[in-house]
Amino acid sequence: MPYRSKELLQQWVEEYAGAGEGSPGVIEVLTHDEGAGADTGLVVMRMGDLPSDVYLHPVGPGAPDWTVNFGPRERDLTMTARKLRGLAQELTKAAALCEFFEAKSVQHDLDSGRASA
User: Fold this and answer.
1) Which of 3, 13, 15, 81 has the lowest CB atom count within 10 Å?
2) What stretch of H or E contains 89?
3) Chain centre to alpha carbon of residue 46
């Protein structure tokens, strides 16, 4: 089984949502081929208050750490304090999802024998 395949990431997203954490924006799990057959997975979030996509993905194949990338914008981003607070809440949820993926990655490594406790 590929490490953090699309199917595995989809299970993690469903587990996260099922634990009452909610879904930050719209989450889509995509197959992300890093080359040489390494399926590292890619999660795309579409946030209501941010006009670009947010990408969550492992730092590298087999790494438990995850990173967040913000897609490019075509224009300046100007918003009211209320919109900014909404964006901050969405970003906090994105950070929590990223931390969840990091914890799941560590556990996945332990369960598969790739890492020691």
Assistant:
1) 81
2) helix 81-112
3) 11
